[in-house]
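The authors assume throughout that readers already know how a fold can be written as discrete tokens. A single example would do more here than another paragraph of explanation. An entry of this sort, consisting of the sequence and the corresponding backbone structure tokens, reads as follows:
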Amino acid sequence: MNWWTEGIRNAIDYIEDNITEELNIRDIAEKACVSAFYFQKIFNVLCGFTVGEYIRNRRLSLAAEELSKSDAKVIDVALKYGYDSPDSFTRAFARFHGISPSAAKLKGANLKSFARLKFKIVLEGCTMLEYKIVEKAQFTVMGRLKDSIQIPRKAKSPGSGMNTTKARTAGLFAECTEYAWRVTENTLII
């Protein structure tokens, strides 16, 4: 196992073990053996959200679970999960869950759960494909018309020099979603 995957796992474990404590990005990054700057960048690229968002969402999820399953007071839960005042906790809670903390205490309240992050890397591919480019005489592509697909304005059909906004897919080429195709004298361009 790579040292950096183990480091990120250690950082996530540290966050989870200290979720009710004050967390500092330098301490978290230290567990991953990288600088705070690089840890934040790596975390954001891998997860799609920032370290701060992860911590906030986990705290709000755990707070909702605690409020719904116990008789804890809102102010006690707010302070436990790092909020300075019940008002700031209520605003953040309502933004995340769509209901107030006191409504979360009611039986049957709809709450959101933000699960603990599990870090797993899967690398796939690395298969060798052999191919050959051949020139064929002009031919017609026929097939059953499926759907129209939208291609971003900046995308160009290969070799056309023109912007393409719409292409039609036919038969076998129904999976072709990013490019248009056209038949020239000797070549089918996909």
